[in-house]
Amino acid sequence: MVNEGLNKPGVDIPEEMQNQVAITTLDRIYNWSRSKSLWPMMFGLACCAIEMMITASSRFDFSRFGMEVMRPSPRQADVMLVSGTVTKKMIPQIVRLYNQMPEPRYVLAMGACASGGGPFKEGYNVVSGVDKFIPVDIYVPGCPPTPQALLHGLITLTKKIETEKLSEAEWYRKDFEEEIPVPILGPDLIDPRNFERIKQVSREQLEAKVLDESISTEDTL
Amino acid sequence: MSDPILVSTIPDFHILYPENVHQDERPGYTGFIVQSPFLLEFAKAIRDDWGYDFLTSVTAVDFFPETFEVVYHLFRSLGGGVLTFKVVLPRENPKIDSLYNIFPGSELQEREVYDMYGIVFVNHPDLRRILLWEGFAGWPLRKDWKEAYFEEESKPFSSRWPNGEAVRSESANPFHANLKYPPGFDPEKWIPDGEDALYMGLKQPENSDGMNTDYMIVNLGPQHPSTHGVFRMAALVDGETVVDLKPVVGYLHRNHEKIGERNTYLQNMPFTDRIDYINAMSNNFGYALAVEKLMGIKPPERAEYIRVIMAELSRIQSHFMVTGFLLNDLGAFFTPALYALKERELILDIFEEVSGSRMMCNYFRFGGLARDLPEGVLKKIHDLAFNRLPRKIDEMDELLTENEIVTARCKGIGILSAERAIALSAVGPILRASGVPYDIRRADPYSIYDRFDFDVIVRYHGDIYDRYLVRIEEMRESARILQQAIKQIPEGPIFEGKSQYQVKVPPGESYGRVEGPRGELGFYVVSNGQPNPVRYHIRAPSFINLTGLQEMCRNEKIADAVAILGSIDIVLGEVDR
Lengths: 221, 577
What we know:
The complex is a heterodimer. By secondary structure, chain A is mainly alpha-helical. Chain A has six helices and five strands; from the N terminus they run ααβαβαβαββα.
């Protein structure tokens, strides 16, 4: 069997050697081997985690795509399935887990909540999508997505990996920022990248409030 | 012959204690209003003299702008209906005595009320925020507290599409995110409240053996393969032995109750699916019962039967899953779970066929069901109930029950005695494995459960092994109920009256409870006649079962704490809501 994904097209290999020799580029072999053995992190958040486990179990069985090893440790995983509602209380841990994953790493936002807040978006403890903090590669819609949908998302991820180039991969660049600053739990969630904006807005709010109060006291006088 | 004692009658407490207890006379309300200084005495009296030994739910209602009401629901562990009483508190500086010393099961629930309303429980042993974190600004369930994405008091919002364009919640917020800070807040000066209070709460024992051992704090979770989601335990260990342990929850707090108060009654139905996401049907059932009680309607016969069939199928698939994942926690990684999930899939197929979704069924309506059974489904359920499921339950039983590792790891571990189980408000298989034959389907029958012949499964050791056995036996009983229901199910309509988006719910309160796979699942709904509930509270069985975790884990090995947690069977969506 000739491996279409591995061989560089346009290079003729003699027929008798086709199963023993492959002529390929570094990019191709690198992407081919990575996309065929993605190790998801065993990490469930909410309802979607149940469908994720079903996808791992015998009926849907994503080990057919080289993903049979689910690792609870972020150090040994290369795709993070964010399977469920991301809450403000949980996001510091999620960012920390993401930071601990070795590159190249991918994030799949599973379901409506992880993609954009979903049915719980208006809730005071819900982050409107995990992409507010960590970069997401694939969004899988659904509430929860069926195992078929998740499989489709994972296959799409492998396709994305196959188009990557070593020379352009961001994690080999010099200016690559490895760590995403971990959010802080304050009176509300504080993103360390947003200090200035928070300061500015809350100062304006304070001024508006003082102004409001002075107007209302004038009224009563 | 003397008069038989009716466990179902509620004594006239307002006549017994005329000074301090009054009947709640508002239309639609039941129960009693207790004067705040009399609370402890009253609680002691009803427990010791009147047999109301089981405090099932503690919650509060905000009657903005007048008062807070703390609402208690109790029942007798012998059976019978629910006793409701309330304590009225002022909105300024609300304080109330903690019931912890009389009903230890109130511990986590009082913390939740404190977290949501800022009501201080005096003499509570560990009053910290539970679902949110220390330092969070405001008390979210107070009616005058507005979330960052606040639009209007109630749904449906006036327009989602002003001028023909969709408005995103982000665009209205100055941070373009779900954020809101107190005016004048400076993030650079903020010192996060550490977790000292949590760790200081872990008690070191008296040094009795004369050895100077060091204690260590071990955190399991929130990301841990054996915590069934985002649960966290902080354990103080001496070597490998757990000295003290505290559950830390709230990592999946999705604000069901705040959102539920904005939603219309029917809009809450799909949200109930996501509370306990492993068995949506039972949640639908409990909520439908609560609202139907308020509306004073009953579904037609056929709908009742379909409801029971769905709830029992749901129980079987949930128990399958728990049994599989308990074995995961014992170290048999994934193989037993695969056996269990295989059967679960067959049941999910039925759910998908009747409701359109595998997990989030949204199938029940007030006064009936969303749609009738499609053709051929009853045949499938028949095959499952009479043939496949009993066979597979036996297979599971055969493979696991006598298994040497299962018996070695489970027998005698995590013991909860009957008295402590009642005191700690444990419900469901935990309570029944401790020797208390309490099953709401028998003790306070709802729907048509009084027509079926089934046994309430009881075991007496109160350890992990008995909890496992109770679940296996309960699956058999559920199959028995299914067999009877399939034989008896009549033809007919599945909905009473005309289906409508906006139901009219008269003012009042109601507490609907069902026996879910994890125990008593209750919905407390307060209505003021508007299209939205004033209060929508979920009495989550697995959250309240966690109250006993500390006691079950003390003096066990840290590895067994994982197994004990597996035997409690928590679902984080329900714990954190």
